[in-house]
Amino acid sequence: MADITKLEAELWEAADELRANSKLSSQEYCMPVLGLIFLRYAWGRFKRVDEQIDAERAKMEGRKPPKDPVDYTAKGAMYLPEQARYDYLVNLPADKDIGKAVNDAMAAISKDNPSLQGVLPSTYAELGNDILREVLRIFNNRALDEEGDDIIGRIYEYFLNKFAPLVASDDGVFFTPKSLVRMIMNILEPERGQMLDPACGSGGMFVSASDYVREHGGNPSESMMYYGQEKVDYNAKLCLMNMSVHGMQGIIKSGDEANSFYHDAHDLEGKCDYVAANPPFNVDKVKWSRATDAGRMPLGVPKENKKGEVSTSGANYLWINYFYSYLNDTGRAGFVMASSATDSNAEKQQRRKLVESGDVDVMLYVGNNFFYTKSLPCTLWFFDKGKPHKLRDKVLFIDAQRYHTAVSTTLNEWTPWQLKNLSAIVWLYRGELDKYAALLDEYRTFAEGCSPMFGDEASKLLDLQGPEDFKLAYEAMLKHIEQRKADSKAEVEALPKREQKRRRETLSKEAETLEEASTVIGDAVWLTEKFGLGEYTDIAGLCKIVTRSEIKGDQEAGKSSWSLTPGAYVGVPPVEDDGVDFHERMRGIHEELLTLQAESNDLLEAISKNFEEMGL
Question: CB of 167 within 8 A of CB of 160?
Fold first, then answer.
């Protein structure tokens, strides 16, 4: 996160230079700069995969086959011809026309990737060689070599908020954080088939789906086909760029025909294996007649208001209708939605149809501050038309608002281990005990790898069988860290002053590594204290499996809202007893309050006397 924040500042510096030294408008220079980010990110992925291919070829006996572009796409990268490689452009001699060279690079990539025809910028000659060289230098940043992150989408949102805030906030369009996207994929578990995102933005859902397939031994370029709709042309171009960087192919449609409220641009109703999306929710001004004419409303038609439009809550349910309608008989959907949609009264009958279908699988509540530029809660919805019979009468509710990592005061996320723990709850609900056991093995392997860092405490990390073992290991780690901090302080103070700063920095990095390791084992404690070695149980304040009759409630008494709000079922966690007597604590608080009140009265009296002396 720190690297990305630093990178964003440097990109802004580059964009500012373009703005100051060229006649381009915001939108005109936004795409050329993003095109350079695309080149740099593509180069980073190309390098990494090229090294993997070379390592594999080195093990081959006899004559080595020539490298093929397909070898790169299979590993999640785009093949780059030599003139489109970033190091070639950065190292061009000063007398070369760098603008023409970058245009040629874009043309070469488009030639090999037909989906990028007309997408990549081709106006670099207009920027001027000096400015362009400086921007290329700034973008030659290691952060763009990072694997597994939708960096183009992240940076695109940053640009929107810097250059065109009106566009960034239009219709609720904003970047979906990586951990939410990954959570969706962990529950959808894509393997092969057709995936649709009818509000695809910069393509983060597709990228994460491909990562998931690849991590589980598949080749997404062979097993998955991606379809996207995105009414904003800029977003669609970025989606195509993003997918190409990751060696992916898809069909993305943009413009008026891709407005999902009015068009099924790919004619995919009832045909999708997977639907994944973060749609613009709470949208107003959707024309009722056009939306109803477009169909795809198996749950019911929304009400029309006096303006001939659909209300914001009704528009949210248009999306929910679409996601459900696109699924085939065994399809799964996972999407982000405004939390208000889980129990809005006007759409109660549509929720009833959903619940009665048995296709609602998981509802996961997400707290505030997960979005990069918005502070709002949301809920992740999951449908599964292929749910096994034993689960058709059940829905898993998870309230994850208390389980996250604070990146800053305004941004939260789930770490990779927290994502695995939340996924583990779903595995247990589905009866996939082998996946839970594999996760415990991952924790054991991690702990064994940490053993050398923890000295004499290492023995406590080598036999992690049950919850108590993980807890003992965690406590041993914390004890070791505290002792190491004390020893480090004494060690630094014993050194000459000129050596103290360097040693303090080294010890600080060591302490950070130790604390990161203990945090992972802390996540193992969090999981095993609740579910042991693999037995699902309802946890107050976290998760509960609820039957359809419980969701229905007392319909005859008029108390049934068919609510899908996780908090309505999981409740709140029990308050831990801190060992302090309540009455004793209240007596102390009361005494402190009386003292403060007396001091306040004395202060007011002194202020009044001073005013009197001043004649006021």
Answer: yes
DSSP 247-275: T--EEEEESGGG-TTT--TT--TTTEEEE
CA–CA separation, 78 and 88 (whole Å)? 16
pLDDT of residue 230: 92
Least confident of 22-36, 181-195, 393-407: 22-36
Task: Work out the angle at residue 447's Cα, subtended by the Cα atoms of residues 444 and 451, and round it to the nearest 5 degrees.
Answer: 135
Residue with tokens 């500042």: 9
Q: Any idea how long the chain is?
A: 616
Token pair of 98, please?
A: 């760098």
Nearest-angstrom CA–CA distance, 446 and 454: 13
Q: How far is CA 224 from CA 197, 239, 341, 525, 612, in A?
A: 13, 16, 31, 37, 83
Mean pLDDT across 548-574: 83
Residues ≥6 apart with Cβ < 8 Å to 259: 229, 231
pLDDT digits (tens, 9 = 90+) for 423-460: 999 999 999 999 999 999 999 888 888 777 776 555 55
Q: Distance (Å, rounded) from C-alpha 611 to C-alpha 613?
A: 5
**Would you say 248 and 221 are in contact if contact means Cβ atoms under 8 Å apart?**
yes
User: Is residue 55 classed as helix, strand or coil in its secondary structure?
Assistant: helix
Ordered alpha helix ranges (H), 189-274: 204-215, 220-223, 233-245
Global pTM value? 0.82
- Give the Cβ contact number of residue 357 at 10 Å: 16
Residue 199 near residue 229 (C-beta atoms within 8 A): yes
